[in-house]
């Protein structure tokens, strides 16, 4: 706890100083968390009174400090009264986070790195990590003073996080306002931290009991030495992620391995008929996020099997263009046949170029 408090003032000051030189990404403020149609909805909140949130935002930046490589931005907040088209999250609700793997050019990893050599989206080249022990995580600083951290290390796994926070009433304005810490570490347990300077990318998802989890969102974290001289590199990386976000975590990837393949069909079959809470047993097969795993979710998976949607397409657009799902009787026959015969071909999602 002392470690985090010691660097809090420095990181906040650095973020404020650099923000004025950067393109005004909405994600320099906070990640808004509300309810919308029985799902956790996220967006960007500038934390400026009178400025409406951007519920379409899925990319956020974090400006890491020079010695401790920590940052308490973006923050996490939930509002009461709720912004237009959303609903309030009731007081006393526990919110959790998870880290998700991402697919880039056929490779799957839950942590990606770019040197920052360039200032346009075309120059961005995320690669997998080569330094042993390096990890990026989120500290959960609870009201009891208990610090727990979940980290990603560049594996192909979905990593279950922890308790992000519990909603409460703060006057008439907020249900939640947390500044948990993103921490980049070299794994040797001593300061200073020795890591490659550049830009790091993680994917996250928020969840609460009884509703569908949030859409995936992304945190693009830049190290101090890079962003103090070239904030444009961080902007370029954020824009690249914004342009390619639908390919990084493909629709229909029900087991969070970065691929849309027959294992996702198995996850759907395992959860067929379930009504939540989700995720369950490490998978989440409610592809259309209507609160129940049914034939419509089979159609979502089938539509994306072996291919990812074009950049910029949304789940709603993809679901609207798929063929009608098979009848229940017909699907029962398909399940009976498929359940007894192995599928030998795993088809990868279309990858980024």
UniProtKB/TrEMBL annotation:
Which Gene3D superfamilies does this one have?
A: Dockerin domain (1.10.1330.10)
Instruction: Please give the InterPro entries that the UniProt record associates with this protein.
Output: Dockerin_1_rpt, Dockerin_dom_sf, EF_Hand_1_Ca_BS
Establish whether keyword Signal is in the entry. Answer: yes
List where the protein spans the membrane: none
Q: Name one GO biological process term.
A: polysaccharide catabolic process
Q: Residues of the signal sequence?
A: 1-19
Q: Which GO terms describe its molecular function?
A: hydrolase activity, hydrolyzing O-glycosyl compounds
Q: Name one Pfam family in it.
A: Dockerin_1
Q: Which UniProt keywords apply?
A: Signal
Query: Which protein is depicted?
Result: Dockerin type I domain-containing protein
